[in-house]
Amino acid sequence: MGGQAPVVQRIRLRYAKRGPLRFTSHRDFARAFERALKRAGVPIAFSQGFTPHPKISYASAAPTGVGSEAEYLEIGLQTVVDAAQLRVALDAALSPGLDVLDAVVATEGGGSLADRIDASKWRIELPQVETQVAAEAVAAFLATEEVLVERMTKQGKREFDARNPVAFFTVTNESGAPSGANAAPCAIIDLVVRQVTPAVRPDDVMSGLRVVAGLEPPVPPRVTRLAQGSLTSQGEIVDPLDADREDATIGGR
Amino acid sequence: MSVQSVFPQLEQLLPRVSKPIQYVGGELGAVVKDWDSTTVRWALMYPDAYEVGLPNQGVQILYEVLNEQEDVLAERTYAIWPDLEALMKENGVPQFTVDAHRPVKAFDVLGLSFATELGYTNMLSALDLAGIPLDSAERGIDDPIVLAGGHASFNPEPIADFIDAAVLGDGEEAVLEITGIIREWKAEGCPGGRDELLLRLARTESIYVPRFYDVDYLPDGRIQRVVPNRPDVPFRVNKRTTMDLDAWPYPKKPLVPLAETVHERYAVEIFRGCTRGCRFCQAGMITRPVRERSITTVGQMIKEGLEYSGYSEVGLLSLSSADHSEIGDMCSGLAEQYADTNVSLSLPSTRVDAFNIDLAQELSRNGRRTGLTFAPEGGSERIRKVINKMVTEEDLIRTVVTAYTNGWRSVKLYFMCGLPTETDDDVLQIGRMAHEVIKAGRLATGTKDIKCTVSIGAFVPKPHTPFQWAAMERPEVIDNRLRMLKQEINSDRSLGRAIGYRYHDGEPSLIEGLLSRGDRRVGKVIRRAWDKGQRFDGWSEHFSYARWVDSAAEVLPEFGVDLDWFTTREREQLEVLPWDHLDSGLDKDWLWQDWMDSKSEFEQDDCRWTPCFDCGVCPSMDTEIQIGPTGKKLLPLTPVAGLRTPAAAHTH
Asked: Domain Radical SAM core spans what residues (chain B) (predicted)?
């Protein structure tokens, strides 16, 4: 085998895991995405070496079973393509429910995707939980300085604080689940968590609600990641693709 | 009346089970149709876990063939793991299809593909979860027709109580004919109810409806006769044979799963049937005659299958792929077409000769080398004559050494244990042969860096083969021989280190033997074992030998027979076998003669290259051998540059 063609363009994508396909694990998605690259005829670049791998790098993936409107990845290409066309081609090549939402050309020297992500915004739907009950639990959580929860990690059972990384936590006033799950009641919580190690995930925060307020939802919560990016002092999350987009505009592409 | 999706209820349970992705569907190639605008609706089930069932070719082909019909809807369902099964029962969620999550009970037909008998208990779980009575006699007009297909349906007697009908042989045309019968019956307003529909199916003479046949037994437990209990059904039921595989180039749109499955490749069947005549091989016996798919159709299917699926692996499947009349041109043509790609091409290599290595060498031209597997099946020259596997020890050693000198560092060798007339020495011979292989390989390559893996499983006698009369060996004898073989392999430490050893215990095979050659009385054992919790018989962590033995001991004495009677007993020529009324085309006298030839170690040639030996299939089924060469070649592919954006493409 000769050498592989060099990377001439990097494209960053935002994609969603929706509906039933939120049960796709990260490994499942990665396999499906590699096949989608082939189906769509994307001129993906490969790594050097005995078993060349396609140049794909993922930003932190949402847990299996959690929906997402804001997953990110970057691909390296051996030919320059139009980002908008690439988005359409890849979206069509993936199963409905794995939807490619945005594509921008990465600017050189603009830093990696990971550098631009330090927080996630989550929506937690709690079917069969009254809004008032959820609001009281959230208030109790916020009023506590440290909320220790346990989770099995690759290193075994670990205990950590679920409170500190929580930047924003509120019960919204929307009524009814937008997902159209079971009929009312359904409490809806919006949550912003900073990226820390070990990662604090929505299920850890839910464990925290159990610890501080004894909240035990009768059915599993339905969780969706709404955004990922850098958290501003105003509490907003900046889309990590914006920086590339702005640079491109300034550069007049 | 429309049918509701059970997904909203199922969705609540999925976060609590392992690998939920296997229950959500959404595969590429999956088809969801509007329920009300179709008239005949099939639920197709592969009765094992999704990861095993999804890649199954049979189900994928029938799914596509059926869904191509405008007024027909076909969806898929698979065996549900015990964790979700328990939750579904607790919450009243029925067995569902993965495509649109519709309840299986709402369909017209539940078609089950039994590649092996190990799916029988999973069928009962699915019926139970679906809310369909387990006994076919108790089903009503609202229940689907439970239809069995696949190789195991050549003896469906052990599941005769649970199924309504069985199809023997190729399914492509059968499913369309059945669809036509149901369509017509429904259009007429379902006259005569379920019984009338089953009668119409039975009258085709190629769909077996067990309830229309009675089995009488002799006082000693053997079958006296199997006869129709009504005048308007045939005495014998014929198998189906799809001729002209080029006219049925399926799968065109293979199902590509999101979940990880056992095979992730585009598989194309390059021919169907086999006349090598290996006496243990049920597939080779019941799929005759050989029907080749032409080199150009194979090339076209691969091109389109890869474009559609995005797979990077291709398998050229059949019972003995190197025997295709155009295999040389096929391999070199494909190697040329995919030379500059990351596509890996593979041939399930079981033929023990150098030609196979030439082909594998061709296919690995782009640097993607796949493993080499040879199947001598028996360790001694003598036992290979018994099973009609015409390979000499010199053939094997020469072939494997050729593989080593061509750069393969490791090869796999397949064998069976417990073959008729087998002695300890026949099995120990495997170890000696493996030693010779390594010695010769080291000599030829001048390196110690070569290996082989001996893989060995217990033989299970199957219906419609010359070994259908044979006694099975007892599991303890098998296990002892497997232990002795291990010692033999390791008796020389230097050689032993280069030989991997994999084996399967004898116990599961004995139960497979019970299910393979059982009659209707074995159905009671299946039911008892399932009642006791037996499921997923193909999975060692779920299979319980003790549960099966107990179930047999509880149920069978009432009939004056036992587990041994069905498994380790040799049958006599005149005994009525449970499947004698099911016609695979093989002449029973020819099978008996082949069984006798086996015992006298007489070998039978292949009818593709020597005169017909009168196995009976072609004249009785009105079929003939269809082989090339066509003389055509595969042309270079023109690479298409640019992104493929959806024009008309993409229908889900």
From this structure: 260-498
